[in-house]
Design a protein that fits this description.
- The radius of gyration is 23 Å and the shape is globular.
- The two termini are 21 Å apart.
- It contains 13 helices and 14 strands.
- The protein has a seven-stranded mixed sheet, sandwiched between helices.
- Helix 4 packs parallel to helix 5.
- By secondary structure, the chain is an alpha/beta fold.
- It folds into two domains: 158 residues, Aspartate Aminotransferase, domain 1, CATH 3.90.1150; 236 residues, 3-Layer(aba) Sandwich (Aspartate Aminotransferase, domain 2), CATH 3.40.640.
- Strand 3, helix 5 and strand 4 form a beta-alpha-beta unit.
- Bound molecules: pyridoxal-5'-phosphate.
């Protein structure tokens, strides 16, 4: 039997002999009692080490040029130098930027919470559009705040804009949409110029106070020599007179220290001042000492680019390994399709026969932890039981090698078993 044949071309007896081989391999792997992890997209220790210079970089100098002492209270919008840094990353003016603490997710949660009271002035259930597969923590924010989620799929260019337009035209209670516009989590999509232009127009057809949550978490996280381009949404919105409809987010979590970076919010002057007022009931200012450290360390666009090249040198071989393992074990078999991202932190794989949960379970029993099946969909429910997110960055390459072998084995075993019993 040809091991690379399309699985659907195999007879039941061929499938059964293949299953016996795979089961034998699986039993051996299980006996090895591995403990490997392909779950969360965290930077590897070697990536964190790239920013160790942050420690002690201030050498006791805490004063800004304007005399501000960063150790003291105040300045919710952030220090001017850090707002400038955020402006560089988000590609907008520094007056449109607020600098927050270590988590952009916290800023997103706060932003959505702060809009709730306005949205609640209208009668009806508040809804968000969620392009899927997407980032689980976006969906958890909606779930926790009682916001109903409506899913739309992707085209090659980004979210399905025709579907979005028609949903928006029929429902003024759609108050937001989650977007990861560059190297999307987990699909790796970067939105095309045309898609961004269509996003800029959404504010015109939307009901009151509609917000595009533009989570540019992977703005500078390129894996290829020619990065995906991304049109600036805020500039496009300015042309359409819809600037209030966009709120951009980013952070240095995967640039410097994931647990101790700084975050950025970019939006219109009105939105920024409303959000500042909202936040001022919970804090007097974010960590300005850390903002200053980041300014000293990341400096400007060229320095950020050079720093991200070092990340690429660590991360890219891991993505190459994932691709090579998937290609060599699965290409042409018809068991799955997967993405080949040019940046970001994930590879997204769709099983052909809806066996994602079986694959995750088999892998777990063999000592390889995968993100739970369904996690990339609202309420944890993937209607096709097909999507699996692979996060290659954290494990050392030798572990990734082993984990991917187990993964492809489990994927084929689950598929063959499914076809025999279907
Ligand atoms: C799309 C996306 N947004 C936000 C985050 C979290 O960002 P932060 O560490 O700034 O909270 C992640 C982390 O995986 C992510 O993938």
């Amino acid at each position: 039997m040809d091991r690379t044949m399309r699985i659907t071309d195999l007879s039941i007896s061929d499938l059964e002999s293949r299953q016996a081989v795979l089961q034998g391999e699986y039993d051996e792997v299980k006996a090895a009692k591995l403990s490997l992890d392909l779950t969360r997209g965290k930077p590897a220790t070697a990536q964190l080490d790239l920013s160790n210079e942050l420690d002690g970089i201030l050498e006791g100098f805490f004063l800004l040029q304007d005399g501000t002492d960063v150790r003291n209270y105040g300045g919710i919008l952030g220090i001017p130098e850090a707002r400038e840094l955020g402006a560089t990353i988000l590609g907008i003016d520094s007056e449109s930027v607020m600098v927050g603490g270590n988590s952009s997710l916290t800023m997103m949660y706060n932003y959505v919470s702060h809009m709730l009271t306005r949205w609640q002035e209208e009668d009806g259930t508040i809804k968000f559009i969620c392009p899927v597969p997407g980032y689980d923590r976006h969906f958890t924010i909606c779930e926790q705040l009682g916001i109903e989620m409506i899913t739309v799929g992707f085209t090659d260019d980004g979210p399905d804009m025709d579907a979005i337009d028609s949903l928006m035209a029929s429902d003024p209670m759609i108050k937001g949409i989650w977007c990861v516009p560059r190297y999307s989590n987990p699909t790796g999509h970067s939105y095309s110029d045309e898609v961004v232009k269509r996003f800029a127009k959404l504010g015109k057809s939307a009901g009151n106070h509609f917000r595009i949550i533009w989570d540019n978490a992977y703005a500078v996280h390129h894996l290829a020599d020619t990065p995906d381009r991304l049109t600036n949404l805020l500039a496009a919105c300015e042309k359409e007179d819809t600037s209030d409809s966009v709120v951009m987010f980013a952070s240095t979590s995967k640039v410097t220290f994931a647990g101790s970076g700084i975050s950025f919010v970019g939006t219109s002057a009105q939105n920024l001042s409303d959000f500042e007022a909202f936040l001022s009931t919970q804090l007097i200012g974010f960590d300005k000492v850390n903002q200053l450290r980041h300014v000293r360390f990341l400096k400007d666009a060229d320095a950020i680019k050079a720093h991200m090249e070092k990340h690429k040198d660590i991360v890219q071989p891991k993505f190459a390994m994932v691709e090579q393992k998937l290609d060599s074990a699965l290409a042409g078999k018809g068991v799955a399709s997967w993405t080949k991202p040019k940046g970001g932190y994930f590879v997204s794989l769709d099983t052909t026969y809806g066996v994602a949960d079986e694959v995750v379970e088999l892998a777990a029993d063999a000592g390889v932890k995968l993100t739970p099946a369904g996690a990339t969909f609202p309420y944890g429910q993937d209607p096709d039981n097909s999507n699996i997110r692979i996060a290659p960055t954290y494990p050392p390459i030798a572990e990734l090698d082993k984990a991917m072998d187990v993964f492809v084995l489990c994927l084929e075993l689950a598929t063959v078993t499914h076809l025999i019993t279907a």
